[in-house]
Amino acid sequence: MSDISYNYNNSDVLILKQIGRFIKEKRIEKNINQDSLASDAVISRSTLSLIERGENVSLINLIKILRTLDALYVLDSFKIETQISPMLLAEEEQKKRKRAFQAKQTPENEDLGW
């Protein structure tokens, strides 16, 4: 694990509180009350209230809330993108066709001169 994981400022409790503050700020920014957001996310209002206060949150509830707030973009950092080495990229570029080619077609009844 990195040093950041063990940093006191990133304790589990503080991270949960930060998530709760983020959700609360997004909800208020969109002018949505807790009842409406909870109803749209199909969770109870008390669950939403607990999450906003930084209490433990299940991932499924977090995803429901983020989706409802149109804030799933915060999960983009979890995406794994494969990186191609420059050498492999150059090899693939060499394999690409550079031109179109159409073979000459000879009619079936044309005399080939044999």
Describe what you observe in this structure:
The chain has helices at residues 3-6, 12-29, 34-41, 45-52, 59-68, 86-95. By secondary structure, it is mainly alpha-helical. The chain has a domain at 3-78: 434 Repressor (Amino-terminal Domain). α3 crosses α4 (45-52). The protein is elongated. It starts with a helix and ends in a 19-residue tail after the last helix. The mean pLDDT is 85.
What is the CATH H-level superfamily of the domain at 3-78? lambda repressor-like DNA-binding domains
- Secondary-structure class: mainly alpha
| The CATH architecture of the domain at 3-78 | Orthogonal Bundle
Radius of gyration: 29 Å
Mean pLDDT: 85
How many β-strands, per DSSP?
0
Q: How would you describe this structure in keywords?
A:
mainly alpha; 6 helices; 114 residues
Write the layout of secondary structure elements.
Elements lengths: L2 H4 L5 H18 L4 H8 L3 H8 L6 H10 L17 H10 L19
Helix pairs in contact: 3-4, 3-5
